[in-house]
Write a sequence for this structure.
């Protein structure tokens, strides 16, 4: 495994942790913190996008979900 592969895998693991934070913030009622965590992610995969869109929808912020997208 070369250095690039190691870095890519490390970033993926960090991304999974961030997605969990986004989900937790949304479920605890803090959409602003969820969006902040999402915006601070360096690499956003499909799971991150899905989580933030669902977070906005849960809080009745459909237009905000579209603006984040």
């Amino acid at each position: 495994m070369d250095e690039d592969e190691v870095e890519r895998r490390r970033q993926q693991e960090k991304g999974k942790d961030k997605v969990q934070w986004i989900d937790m913030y949304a479920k605890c009622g803090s959409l602003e913190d969820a969006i902040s965590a999402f915006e601070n992610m360096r690499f956003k995969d499909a799971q991150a996008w899905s989580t933030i869109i669902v977070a906005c929808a849960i809080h009745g912020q459909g237009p905000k979900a579209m603006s984040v997208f």
The chain has a mean pLDDT of 83. The two ends are 34 Å apart (CA to CA). The chain is about 80% helix and 0% strand.
